[in-house]
Amino acid sequence: MIDSGRTCLSCSGIENLTDCTVIEACKDDEVCFTHKYTHGPNYMYTPELYDVGCTNQKLCIPGKPGSVFGKRGTRRHYVCETCCNNTDICNMKSACAKPSDHKELCESTNKEGNRKCLACNGVKSFLDCTEVETCKSDEVSLTQLRNDSSFPRECDDMKNITSGVYTIYPDGFHPIRAFCIVDNHNKETWTVIQHRSTGNVNFDRDWDEYKRGFGSPHGDHWLGNDIIHQISTSTSHKLSIYLEDFNRDFKYANYSYFEIGDENRKYQLLLYAYSGTGGLTDYFGSYVNNELFSTKDQDNDRLANVNCAERDHGGWWYFHNSYCSNVNLNGPYLAGTVTNSSAMYWKDWPQQYYSLRKSTMMIKRIDEK
Ligand SMILES: [Ca+2]
Q: Fibrinogen C-terminal domain: which residues (predicted)?
């Protein structure tokens, strides 16, 4: 096997992927594939069967299980999409199996030296795995795969695109769909992390839903706290928030530094250097910088005896002094003047207690590449 070689499971007509123990070294321009099929109706017994192995197919069919994703670079290639049922894990050695069978998420190569690999049982996503083990000398770590990935980590990594929904790989190889906004004037491409313009998606959700994201990037949605953490901490990022009222007036709130911590840090918010358009006052970062994220089932706000996320019906970073918030863009979509702060609002714009028509929160790498 050559140094750059990728290994794939290689079997034909098997009923269970776990039955395949044959490993094949692929050529440089090949990727792993998993093909699932059944025999025709003439067969009395029609189990679903799998073929797995190397293929020179280069293009993916997004959303189609078993389709091959991407072409390998000169050293190695990366993911297939949805090769493995209910997982994000591709046809890699000892990784393409039932989630409960995942022993190690390393890829076998002839690399020298020991590496640390994620090692988890029963995870549905790599993002859920935090355990680490030392790989054998002929194995390479997922971290290495991630670092070497040439897939776009965020919208800013894609050139010559127009605004729309694209596949990005925040961790290097795990695909998600995100809305990208191209600002032609400033020649900047932003990744949307929150958008609301219809109110037809409920934002009164629990911790796990905010962690994983909900809604569709084509409409109202929350991208997901794990993803936002991953992107915002991969390099330095800035945040821009677009607000629009029902007169179609709009303003921007901009922060030239933005990140959120990981789940262990309760997605703690860091925001610096505010500038707003049209005299918009910073009622967000100046109040909730360093605060923890809260949802109705996880009260991390510092207001005693009140669960702000439950009371105001949205996951958010809440204010801790004597009341819950001055800004809550994940509050209920109430479309216009309301009577209290339990709404999707930005204090005092366009007026006190006004539920906005649109909000978009988007982030972009601070140029340093
Ligand atoms: Ca509280």
A: 146-367
3-state secondary structure 71-123: CCCCCCCCCCCCCCCCCCCCCCCCCCCCHHHCCCCCEECCCCCCCEEECCCCC
Residues near ion ligand 1 (CB < 5 Å) are 299, 301, 303
Rounded CA-CA distance 220/143 in Å is 32
How many angstroms does the Cα of residue 254 sit away from the middle of ligand 1? Answer: 28
CA 10 to chain CA centroid, nearest Å: 30
Delimit the CATH 3.90.215.10 region(s) of the chain: 155-365
> pTM for the full model?
0.64
State in Å: Cα 221 to ligand 1 middle.
Answer: 25
Each residue's pLDDT tens digit, 250-298: 999 999 999 999 999 999 999 988 999 999 999 999 899 989 999 999 9
Question: Domain 155-365, what fold?
Answer: Gamma Fibrinogen; Chain A, domain 1 (3.90.215)
Give the pLDDT confidence of 151-174 residue by residue, as tens digits: 789 999 988 899 999 988 888 767
Q: How far does residue 212's CA lie from ligand 1's centre (Å)?
A: 23
How do strand 23-25 and strand 48-55 relate by DSSP bridges? unpaired
Q: How far is CA 128 from CA 1, 7, 231, 272, in A?
A: 32, 24, 16, 29
CA of 80 to the centre of ligand 1 (A): 43
